[in-house]
Amino acid sequence: MKDELKILAARTAVDELVARGRIRSGMKLGLGTGSTAMPAVRRIGELIADGTLSGICAVATSFQTTIACENLGIPVYSMNSRQIGGSLDLAIDGADEISPEKHLIKGGGAALLLEKIVAYNSAEFVVVADGSKAVSSLGTKFALPVEIIPEARISVAAALKKLGADAVLREGVRKAGPVVTDNGNLILDCLWASPVQADEMEYEINRITGVVENGFFTRILPSVWIAREDGTIDRR
Ligand SMILES: O=C[C@H](O)[C@H](O)[C@H](O)COP(=O)(O)O
């Protein structure tokens, strides 16, 4: 059921954005990571294949999405390429949690760094999700991913403790040892005993030496498509 809702949110968002001209031929698009972003990527691939969209230049936010784009025939470029020039027209992605003020937690798939570079350098940011992602507050349920330089594992965990967070090193699944991100870093997953002010915490965590990025996304206001269990779409 949840998978169907993810597909519904993703496809509805892409189709409405195309119908309203917010996704157009020739655009530079950021493509997110994860099980909800993927059907959006697939839909964009279909619209390229049937000729509805042409001249799309995409930036993928992970190896997973890069491989999907290769399979779907979506042209992928680096943010630094001449075609992209460091900024995008629109980025579309999933989220792990969405607060009422549309602050996000992202990075459940450890792709937060490139996702944030892409989102924060896009003129428009679109988030697609199933209803389970809409929450009343952030910090106490889904652990905030923090990408760190491996050598700073202990010192960053201690600094996060001073910010009230219990930080746990993310372990690999079907791999001995920790998760290593696409950028060669580690992930600390952080939980607080009570809800946190995400915009302040996004800033404070990134001041810790050895932190590369954290999964709070508060500095760009996304347009959100959430598929509810009854099959309706909540647009925020
Ligand atoms: O690192 C992964 C990303 O931030 C994902 O967009 C996020 O974890 C949501 O993933 P999913 O749509 O699979 O729940």
TrEMBL record:
Gene3D superfamilies attached to this UniProt entry: 3.30.70.260, 3.40.50.1360
Active site (record annotation): 115 (proton acceptor)
Presence of keyword Nucleotide-binding: no
GO cellular component: cytosol
UniProt pathway: Carbohydrate degradation; pentose phosphate pathway; D-ribose 5-phosphate from D-ribulose 5-phosphate (non-oxidative stage): step 1/1
Catalytic activity: aldehydo-D-ribose 5-phosphate = D-ribulose 5-phosphate
Gene Ontology annotations of biological process type: D-ribose metabolic process; pentose-phosphate shunt, non-oxidative branch
Similarity comment: Belongs to the ribose 5-phosphate isomerase family.
Keyword Isomerase: yes
Organism lineage: Bacteria, Pseudomonadati, Spirochaetota, Spirochaetia, Spirochaetales
Binding site for substrate: 33-36, 93-96, 106-109, 133
Domain of life the protein comes from: Bacteria
Pfam families: Rib_5-P_isom_A
Assigned EC number: 5.3.1.6
Subunit note: Homodimer.
Function: Catalyzes the reversible conversion of ribose-5-phosphate to ribulose 5-phosphate.
Protein name as catalogued: Ribose-5-phosphate isomerase A
Keywords from the UniProt entry: Isomerase
PANTHER family given in the database record: RIBOSE-5-PHOSPHATE ISOMERASE (PTHR11934:SF0)
GO MF annotation, one: ribose-5-phosphate isomerase activity
